[in-house]
Design goal:
alpha/beta; 12-stranded mixed β-sheet; 5-stranded mixed β-sheet; globular; disordered C terminus
Length: about 400
């Protein structure tokens, strides 16, 4: 059943994003447009207004989502009058008084608040069926945890330079909490222990240092930890005890190897990158037709994802004790190489042996996914074990001729 929404005759400064909940052909499930006048809206379509300004906010008709920048307290008071809002994400310079104004909303499922002026020490819309709540700002304090604990959120994120972790005990009692992101690098030693009473927390994400003893004390139910900064020793320890680290997990025997591949060196080593530079199509052909497996990444000069993923190639190659060749091809300078390999995006990673393609990962952006797929294809040698036997008794890898 359709409903009608009336927009101003002149376009609003923002865009209306739509999502189709029901079954539709690929490419027709989401998009954005700038409507004017009256438009019909099917019952299986949800709309959200997205704008970098709150100008003409009062002219925006009722819809399920608002994502706004430049928000002040008066804007939040206006937003508080909406009766069908499910997704609210606002940034600006509003205060706790503005947050207090939306306390009476009863339909919110997702709430994101960021302002340098909020402390978080203010009641949230506790009568709303909240699933996700994110609060951030330089003035946010530990008292925010107590108010978050009174919601039904499964996903909680808190960031702010003043957050120390003293209120984490309140979250430990939340029966719905599944994911927690602590975006402060100033969590004090020992404060993570306050989460130990949680019976539901499955994923913990930390911007600051990790307290391994604390983390291991509440696993299970904890299954995964995502870390902005982690030493190899801590990474190996967490992996050994069965936790996934930054999306990567495996049997205890692989903990040390996975930690070496997943993390950079704890101290600068001065070791040159273990990547051969591919200069063109002929060079590529010569390389991949050789007897040794080749782990090759195609990059481009301005591709940040390529810079992010390329160093992992070195770590993986090092783990195979130089039996695996690492290589890089810049699609702009290695003339013909990308075309010959059928590569049309960067970064793309190929794993080959004797000219046979064993693995292709176009657009790969995850360290964990790269490590998991490569080691899953090649297998990972035990300490002191040669993955590829000597020439006199070499066997085909994965059935390759």
């Amino acid at each position: 059943m359709e409903r009608a929404l009336r927009f101003p005759e002149t376009a609003l400064p923002g865009e209306v994003h739509f999502v189709v909940i029901g079954d539709r052909p690929a490419g027709q499930t989401m998009g954005e447009f700038r409507p004017t006048g009256e438009i019909p809206v099917p019952s299986d379509v949800e709309l959200a207004y997205v704008a970098a300004t709150t100008e003409r906010l009062g002219e925006v008709p009722e819809m399920t989502g608002l994502r706004l920048s430049g928000v002040c307290d008066d804007d939040l008071r206006l937003i508080a009058k909406r009766s069908t809002l499910r997704d609210l994400a606002v940034t600006g310079r509003f205060t706790d008084e503005g947050v207090r104004a939306i306390q009476g909303l009863t339909t919110l499922e997702s709430l994101e608040l960021w302002s340098p002026n909020i402390t978080g020490d203010v009641p949230l819309p506790e009568d709303s069926p909240l699933i996700k709540v994110k609060i951030g700002g330089s003035s946010v304090v530990d008292a925010a945890f107590g108010h978050l604990a009174r919601t039904t959120a499964a996903v909680v994120a808190v960031s702010g330079e003043s957050v120390r972790g003293h209120g984490l005990g309140a979250l430990g009692a939340m029966p719905t909490l599944r994911y927690l992101r602590l975006g402060s690098e100033n969590i004090e030693p020992g404060c993570l222990w306050r989460l130990g009473s949680s019976e539901s927390l499955a994923i913990l994400s930390l911007a600051g240092p990790v307290d391994c003893e604390a983390v291991l004390s509440f696993a299970p139910p904890l299954k995964e930890i995502d870390l902005d900064h982690v030493s190899r020793a801590d990474c190996a320890r967490l992996l050994f005890h069965g936790l996934a680290v930054n999306g990567l997990s495996g049997p205890p025997r692989l903990a040390d190897a996975y930690a070496r591949m997943l993390t950079g060196p704890d101290r600068p080593t001065g070791i040159a990158p273990r990547r051969r530079i591919v200069t063109g199509e002929r060079d590529l052909t010569s390389l991949v037709m050789g007897p040794a497996p080749v782990l090759l990444i195609f990059t481009s000069r301005d591709c940040l994802a390529s810079e992010w993923i390329a160093p992992v190639i070195d770590r993986i190659v090092a783990e195979y004790d130089d039996e695996l060749i690492g290589a890089v091809a810049d699609v702009e300078t290695a003339i013909g190489a990308a075309t010959a390999a059928g590569v049309d995006r960067t970064p793309t990673v190929l794993l080959t042996r004797k000219g046979e393609e064993l693995l292709r990962l176009p657009g790969i952006r995850s360290h964990a996914e790269l490590i998991r797929r490569v080691t899953g294809t090649l297998g990972l040698p035990m300490p002191g074990e040669k993955l590829f036997p000597g020439r006199e008794n070499r066997e085909p890898l994965l059935g390759s001729a």
